[in-house]
Design a protein that fits this description.
The protein is of the alpha+beta class. The protein contains two helices and two strands; from the N terminus they run E-E-H-H. It has helices at about 25-40, 45-55; strands spanning about 1-5, 15-20. The protein has a two-stranded antiparallel ribbon. Strand 1 and strand 2 form a beta hairpin.
Amino acid sequence: MALPLGTLNYNGRGFGMLVVGGANSERKLIEVISAWDKALNPVKPPAALLDRSKAA
């Protein structure tokens, strides 16, 4: 599962973390990612993505 963490200041590209687990570990992965997500501030979409949505 991929977890977005933010964007780089120098080029605006997004970065994240990939979390992997063993067979049938989906529930635990979701619990871990949910806790991590709640502990961090909300991640804003990259500026390039926001600019693209305004043009549409």
